[in-house]
Write the structure tokens for this entry.
Amino acid sequence: MRAFQVSAFDAPPALVEIPIPAPKSGEVLLQIESCGLNFADLLMAKGTYQDTPAPSFTLGMEVCGTVLALGQGVTTPAIGTRVAVFGGQGGLADKGVFPADLCRAVPDSMPSAQAAGFQVAYGTSHLALTRRANLQRGETLLVLGAAGGVGLTAIEVGKALGARVIAVARGAEKLEIAKAAGADHALDASADITAEVRALGGADVVYDPVGGDAFTAAVKATNREGRILVIGFASGDLPNVRANHLLVKNISLLGFYWGGYLKFNPKALTDSMGELLDWYAAGKLRPHVSHDLPLTQAADALELLRSRKSTGKVVVSP
């Protein structure tokens, strides 16, 4: 079968032929229908992500696929079930083995391309905004990088929780996409974000997957007792925090790593995903996939993320 693998961190990933893996105890073998890409895939290819395995390994953290075979001791999901699963790696391939207990059946109404990119993006925004930031109805949520994979989901989740949402993105096209996702206000990233957000009443919660100068501007626009969620650093710039600003305005700085919950509180992820799928069934969420490419164009798909030419999710469908 084909797999898009990292053989060394100083060489670009490449499509190679490898044997079809057999599921071990507690695993299932999936026919992969779609794989959702994440910024973390770019970091893993360089060996700089916090959970990067040793080469050689197959990129692709989350997938949707159909169960082909069960490992020892596995009774569910049954063969033939279409499931979504976050495996951390192995998704950019024709087939793959994944932990059975992490697989979740996908509703018939959800296309595989949407299901493949649903877990990390929506799960990140939902758990960050509910469990960590405790976003309340009527509060103002500022979303940086609002047209990206997690940014758009933060808009939708924020609106579902009853917040007023200010979206920050770069360029007219991305701003329109943010508005279509439900943003009440959309600001171009080239503007004076501090002044613009203050003019709108300031932010009670900041959702930041960008870092860099955008983070600094958002801190200055955060209201007293505001909460700032550190989601990621798509800008490549890890910002420095002036602790006196946090002290004077009673601001909370909250780190959030969705994948970390797999190790210390998987039930939190399960409960979160259950509510999100209920919201999807009720029509509250509309996953946005801007590009769906074949496995032969996996490198192009990753470049879309690197160059920030995508909106919402990029998926690869073998």
